[in-house]
Design a protein that fits this description.
Chain A is of the alpha/beta class. Chain A is 37% helix and 28% strand. The radius of gyration of chain A is 18 Å and the shape is globular. In chain B, a hairpin with a 6-residue loop joins strand 14 (498-502) and strand 15. Classes of the chains: A alpha/beta, B alpha+beta. The complex binds adenosine-5'-triphosphate (ATP) and magnesium ion. Chain B: Residues 23-242 form the MacB-like periplasmic core domain.
């Protein structure tokens, strides 16, 4: 599903060029649940943004569902965002001026789903996440965990094939974090959504099936969780 | 709908500057709309006439004296010109002429009094400039002598059945007219207004002399022609010239006077009004556009600042699958909501200041609600909404997503400075205009007009029974407040009608003069007009019809008549008068207002008080003025007392006593309104600029709070920091100032062209305005920055 070949990403400072990603290669198949780990500043978010087509690599090739993403027009990328990719953020990034229901509904609007259908889908999801009572509240009125639930609901409402989560538990305490991780695992297993998450938490990383470690923009290791558990 | 809902919610979010954005937008819109509608209103004049584009007004272009190279242009002609053009100029479909007899008081049989502008018109008047007839037939009425038609407004005040009533004028006792019809009253945006149209064939009842078929002179007729469709008025010039050659013997006249003397041109009726106030239109429209522009820039600046805080939401929308266009739509909807709110606020402001504004512009605001005003305004507003949403929308849509997620902060602030500098340009531009316009205004009203106006009051003798005049004079003289009482036909605050002085052999006219007609022995001393040469009126040996002339007149007479030994004692012949002997010379004074001074030489004819009274007894319609000079310091209640005395001779007790000083001041009403308009514009622009400046400084300080804190930690004192910041701002202000001042200078020289007395555009005015702006910027910046700069640096860093 995802194929990164020799990806470079750098920023030009006044005097030098600093590389965030160096010669990065990666293959992810449909249905995988990958955790990305690494120290701060390693380039994890950058990598995720490139995969999510929010950012472009300076060099290298990127194929998303066999399409050359590095050559796609903005219009095409928006199509991918609408139909195949969902995002979850550490800081939730809900739209403040929208209610819970409206936040969840937003991707459907841009996808062009009819109003009635949208309402039904949102109601369904709220029901599944046990948030029906909160549907008319604004994000500021929710706890962090609840906000992240809304964030996930918004990310999956348009039935994406790929879910990108940048430190989804970073702003939550561990109980809430666990809830979120369980939910992600369930989404991966029951609905077959491919998930790539960035995390600093070893335990949460284990919810995935494969862990990639990055340092200084380079891949240090890439192992299935099963092997890791054996090593322990 | 959905977008609207979100936009409304956004309005109440913090850090949106919603209130300031709306206020500054509303203030700018209110003022801009007002000014623009005023300008469009001027352009709408006379457009209501059907097929107005084919209607033209005939202008006389004439050289008034032989040594004057330039031609004067005015929109009146002699009486025969309009019918002549219809008969002899192919392409003219119909023509009409109107002759105003003034704003007159008239009575119906039941002694009720009315007032209205009365105009003589021929039967073609409604073929050229028609009005809807509510009752009667205009053409028939205008053909019959002693017939008139009245406006619906006057008809309404007369009650039902106005038609058939007989009216009689106070000024022309015995002249009776029958109301034969009612026309729909003229709207306010008509250039040539009238309330009563009187058939031209009644002219002999109002004038001693019928000039309606005159080819030369007596040029007081407003002549309108309607051209055949597709005719270019310029192409008619040869035919008009031929008409002049045939009827005016223009070729011979030109030979006598050496060169082109008189010609007629056609001006579209819709342009007559604007052409008179060209200078003002230029200034008003630039000010309006400047204010709109500044408020637009300010709105965009504040919007940008608020959008930076929302950079993340731009990115979130994109991850939800929104395209750049979707984001632009969000911003457009928001701008639209802001705009609608601001527009409503602007309308509320306009309603609130309506009485004030109507006073200033001297017409009702409703009058501007016509299609010629509304559509252009709507057009301007649409452009305004588009611009106010286009740039922020583009900006919002183009924030890079990955940058937005990593605590997006504007790196550069060049664009902010750019927007701000537009506001400074606007502020310095308009401030300079205001200062110069104000100075010009004061220069005009405080200028020495060359005669006394303070403490001088006057009252018309209209309707006064001549036999009671003597009693009135005595009663007035008995008042303890009264210094002197006199009589005269005219006062210097108004433009005077002209007459010509003939050559000694009576064969040609030498030059045109402003004729003040008769004045009595007290008139000149009441007005403090010194007779510098010859005798005073009060001295003996002066007879009725002796003439006093102005210095300019004396100079011209000396040249034309080769009078090396002076003018006193010489005889002259002035049109409309008998031969008269020059008994004195006085200094020229300002006739009318300084704005459009009547530069002609002037004359007074002497008539004793006794003579005035005898005349009035003989000709009851004769009108002149009773002048009263108050003792110094005793002006308080004198107007009332004068009125009480004069009322004794008026059956309706409706004497109007005017103060010469007020009337003189009124001559500058237009300039005062203009100045006030400018002042309002200035207040608005300054308000907006200050808002913009505050907005800018606060986003700047948050943007740079870290830098500020670090600089303080590294030892910079608060005052260093503030001075530094202010200097940074001033680098921006200075070039803007120069541009603003340059623009102001350009517009002002254009505007000043129309003034006889020009306020010199001295460099210090510009310097002072610049210093003013610089100070304003410095003070605001200082207040804003010192708050931030003195904050504990550690706290600032923690904020990060
Ligand atoms: N716009 C930018 N300009 C300059 N440098 C940038 C920019 N964006 C990212 N970087 C640099 O790229 C590097 C990688 O950033 P990235 O956000 O991918 O790290 P990360 O692994 O997600 O770290 P963290 O765990 O703290 O989130 C960092 O050193 C950062 O300073
Ligand atoms: Mg990161």
């Amino acid at each position: 599903m995802i194929q990164l070949n020799d990806i470079f990403k750098y920023y030009d400072n006044k005097f030098q060029r600093s590389y965030v990603l160096k010669d990065f290669c990666l293959n992810i198949n449909e249905g995988e649940f990958v955790s990305i780990m690494g120290p701060s500043g390693a380039g994890k978010s950058t990598l995720l943004n490139i995969i999510g087509m929010l950012d472009v690599a300076d060099d290298g090739e990127y194929f998303f569902m066999d399409q050359p993403a590095h050559k796609l027009s903005d219009k095409k990328k928006v199509e991918f965002h609408r139909n195949y990719v969902g995002f979850i953020f550490q800081a939730f990034h809900l739209i403040d001026e929208m209610t819970v229901a409206e936040n969840i509904e937003t991707p459907l609007i841009y996808k062009g789903v009819k109003s009635k259908e949208r309402k039904a889908m949102v109601a369904d999801l709220l029901d599944r996440f046990n948030m029906v009572a909160k549907k008319d509240l604004f994000p500021a009125q929710l706890s962090g965990g609840q906000q992240q639930l809304v964030g996930i609901a918004r990310a999956i409402i348009s039935k994406p094939k790929l879910l990108l989560a940048d430190e989804p538990t970073g702003n939550l305490h561990s109980d809430q974090g666990k809830e979120i991780m369980k939910l992600l695992k369930k989404l991966n297993e029951e609905e077959g959504i491919t998930i790539i998450q960035v995390t600093h938490n070893e335990e949460f990383a284990q919810y995935g099936k494969r862990i990639i470690r990055i340092e200084d923009g380079m891949k240090k290791s890439d192992l299935p969780v099963a092997t890791l558990l054996e090593q322990v | 709908m959905y977008l609207l809902k979100i936009a409304f919610r956004n309005l109440f979010q913090k850090q949106q500057h919603s209130i300031t954005r709306i206020i500054s937008l509303a203030a700018g819109l209110a003022f801009g709309i007002l000014m623009l509608s005023e300008v469009f209103y001027y352009y709408s004049f006379d457009s209501f006439y059907p097929e107005a584009s084919r209607v033209y007004v005939v202008q006389s272009n004439a050289r008034l004296s032989d040594d004057n190279a330039e031609m004067d242009v005015w929109d009146r002609t002699s009486g025969a010109i309009a019918p002549g053009m219809k008969d002899e100029v192919p392409g003219v479909e119909v023509a009409t002429r109107l002759n105003s007899i003034g704003n007159l008081i008239f009575y119906t049989a039941d002694q009720k009094s009315y007032k209205g502008r009365c105009v003589l018109a021929d039967e073609y008047v409604y073929d050229v400039i028609p009005r809807n007839m509510l009752v009667g037939n205009a053409k028939e009425a205008m053909l019959k002598p002693s017939n008139c038609i009245i406006s619906s407004k006057i008809a309404a005040s007369m009650g039902d059945d106005a038609v058939g009533k007989v009216i009689e004028f106070r000024k022309y006792p015995g002249v009776q007219l029958t109301v034969a019809g009612v026309f729909e009253a003229l709207p306010e945006n008509s250039n040539y207004k009238y309330d009563v149209l009187i058939s031209m064939s009644s002219i002999a009842q109002f004038f001693d002399w019928d000039g309606s078929t005159n080819w030369l002179g007596n040029d007081r007729y407003y002549s309108c022609v309607k051209l055949d469709a597709g005719v270019n008025p310029k192409d008619l010039a040869p035919a008009i010239r031929k008409m002049q050659e045939k009827h005016q013997d223009i070729i011979k006249l030109e030979q006598d006077h050496g060169g082109e003397l008189l010609k007629y041109t056609l001006i579209p009726i819709q342009k007559v009004y604007v052409s008179r106030i060209q200078g003002m239109v230029i200034i008003l429209s630039t000010i309006a556009l400047a204010v709109l522009f500044v408020s637009l820039m300010n709105y965009v600046l504040l919007t940008f600042s608020s959008l930076i805080n929302r950079a993340k939401s731009s990115a979130v929308y994109k991850t939800c699958g929104a395209t750049a266009n979707d984001l632009k739509k969000i911003i457009f909807t928001e701008s639209f909501v802001f705009f609608v709110l601001a527009l409503s606020a602007a309308l509320v402001i306009l309603m609130a200041v309506k009485p004030l504004v109507e006073n200033l512009v001297a017409h009702s605001l409703e009058a501007t609600l016509n299609q010629y005003v509304l559509w252009p305004i709507v057009g301007v507003l649409i452009i305004f909404v588009l611009l106010s949403s286009y740039f922020p929308g583009r900006f919002f849509a183009n924030i890079p997503v990955s940058a937005a997620f990593r605590n997006y902060k504007q790196k550069k602030n060049k664009w902010k400075l750019g927007l701000l500098s537009f506001q400074f340009i606007g502020a310095s531009f308009i401030l300079t205009l205001l200062v110069v316009v104000t100075l010009q205004y004061h220069k005009m009203i405080n200028a020495d007009h060359g005669y006394r106006s303070q403490g001088v009051y006057y009252c018309s003798t209209n309707g006064i029974d001549g036999s009671k005049l003597n009693m009135i004079m005595n009663e007035l003289r008995k008042l303890p407040e009264v210094e002197k009482v006199g009589m005269g036909e005219e006062v210097p605050v108004y433009q005077q009608s002209g007459n010509n002085i003939y050559s000694q052999d009576g064969k040609k006219d030498l030059f045109n003069i402003a004729d003040f007609y008769s004045v009595d022995e007290n008139y000149l001393s009441i007005l403090d007009i010194d007779v510098t040469n010859g005798r005073d009126f009060s001295t003996s040996g002066i007879n009725n019809n002796d003439v006093f002339i102005s210095k300019k007149c004396a100079e011209l007479l000396k040249i034309h008549n080769h009078w090396e030994d002076g003018v006193i004692g010489k005889e002259i012949k002035v049109s409309e008068h008998q031969r008269s002997t020059i008994k004195g010379v006085f200094d020229d004074f300002i006739i009318g207002s300084i704005v459009e001074p009547d530069k002609r030489p002037s004359v007074f004819f002497y008539q004793s008080e006794e003579g005035f009274i005898r005349q009035k007894e003989k000709y009851p319609s004769m009108e002149f003025k009773l002048l009263v000079q108050a003792k110094t310091g005793m002006e308080a209640n004198i107007r009332n007392k004068i009125k009480q005395v004069v009322d004794m001779a008026l059956p309706n007790k409706d004497a109007v006593v005017r103060s010469l000083e007020d009337e003189q001041f009124n001559g500058y009403q237009a300039q005062l309104s203009f100045r006030n308009g400018m002042l309002a514009g200035n207040v608005v622009v300054f308000l907006i600029t200050i808002i913009g400046l505050i907005g800018y400084t606060s986003t700047e300080t948050t943007r740079r709070s870290k830098e500020l804190a670090i600089r303080r930690i590294s030892g910079a004192s608060i005052s260093d920091l503030i001075v530094n910041f202010i200097l940074e701002l001033q680098y921006l202000v200075l070039p803007s100032l120069l541009i603003g001042l340059g623009l102001a200078w350009f517009i002002l020289t254009k505007w000043m062209e129309s003034f006889a007395q020009k306020m010199p555009l001295q460099w210090w005015i510009f310097l002072l305005c610049s210093i003013g702006i610089l100070l304003m910027v410095a003070i605001i910046a200082m207040i804003k920055y010192s708050r931030i700069a003195s904050r504990n640096p550690v706290e600032s860093l923690r904020y990060e």
